[in-house]
Amino acid sequence: MHSPLTRRGFLAAGSGAAAATVLPGLSGCSALAGADSDPHTLVVHSQLGTTAPGSPTYLAALDRFRKENPGLKVKNLINGDDLAQVYETSRLARKEPDVVMVNLYDKTLAWTDVGATVDVKDHLDAWGLRERVLPQALAAWTDGKGRLRAFPYFATNWPIAYNRALLDRAGVDAIPTTGDELISAARKLRAKGIAPVTVGGNDWTGQKLLAQIIQTFLTEDEARHAYSTGDFGSRGAREGIDYFVTLRDAGVFADKAQGLTSDTMTTQFNTRAAAIESAMSSALAKVPADVARHTEVGGWPLAGGAAHDKPTILRTYTLIGFWISPNGTKKIDAVEKFVRFMYRPDTVSRFIEESGRDMALRSDAVSTDFPLVAAAQRLGSEVSQVLLPDVYVPPAAAQPLITATSTSFTRGTSAAKVRAALETAYRSA
Question: What PROSITE patterns has UniProt attached to this entry (predicted)?
Answer without folding.
Answer: PROKAR_LIPOPROTEIN (PS51257), TAT (PS51318)
